[in-house]
Write a structure and sequence with these properties.
By secondary structure, the chain is α/β, with parallel strands linked by helices. It has eight helices and five strands; from the N terminus they run E-H-E-H-E-H-H-E-H-H-E-H-H. The protein has a five-stranded parallel sheet, sandwiched between helices.
């Protein structure tokens, strides 16, 4: 059975990716990153999702991106709430974390090489997150090229591939896919600015996209929102 490293944040998208990878026949090692994010509660969700969806091995790596800052998720910058769909569709939002997906994929690549795996799975999505430059197909294509040059396995002929099965799906399609694969979305967490007890704010970009996705998919949203 082929092995894959799945980046697992504990959110809706990454949970769906793990279920997809399991359906595709991969034996999965999941990787969650504690990067100093304000919504660290997502790490608990990642553990729950990994166990529920059959991860062979769940790993956590700590790297404090608060030392870099520059994002509402890693700095003392308010998380935007109540933005319109047009606002979310234009420009790069303040919740963009500089170089985050480059760092995450580099960690996943290193782990994959130690495991003898050449498949990485990640939840990048170019529709709902078109403002994030590191969620675009050209970024993943470039990273695959980097992997071929920057690893021992790559220079010895291994071909690393980054699977992004959600790349062209909107949030409703992602919800429908996950539901068809048996994902229990009650285990997941998406909110960027949760209450101390983990309750989702209901108004940040992540919450608005999640709510919209469930509504358009016609599937009940199991999330408890504060507003």
């Amino acid at each position: 059975m082929a092995r894959a490293v799945v980046l697992l944040s504990g959110g809706l998208d990454s949970a769906t990716c793990l279920a997809w990878a399991r359906r595709e026949g991969f034996e999965c090692t999941t990787l969650a990153v504690d990067y100093g994010q304000r919504h660290r509660i997502e790490l608990e969700a990642a553990r729950r999702v990994a166990a529920a969806l059959g991860s062979r091995d769940h790993r956590e790596v700590a790297i404090d991106l608060r030392a870099i800052g520059g994002s509402a998720l890693t700095d003392s910058i308010p998380v935007p709430r109540g933005r319109s769909a047009s606002s979310m569709a234009n420009g790069i939002p303040i919740t963009y974390v500089p170089a985050r997906n480059t760092v995450f994929l580099a960690l996943a690549l290193g782990l994959a090489e130690t495991l003898g795996a050449t498949d990485l799975v990640a939840g990048m999505n170019a529709i709902d997150y078109s403002g994030y430059p590191d969620c675009r197909p050209e970024f993943l294509d470039a990273f695959e090229g980097l992997a071929a040059l920057a690893t021992r396995a790559g220079v010895e002929g291994a071909r690393f591939r980054v699977h992004a099965p959600l790349m062209k799906l909107d949030k409703a399609a992602i919800v429908r896919l996950g539901a068809s694969l048996g994902v229990d979305y009650a285990l997941t967490h998406s909110c960027y600015d949760p209450a101390p007890d983990g309750t989702a704010c209901g108004a940040c970009d992540a919450c608005l996209l999640r709510r919209k996705g469930f509504h358009e998919a016609g599937i009940p949203d199991p999330t408890h929102y504060s507003a």
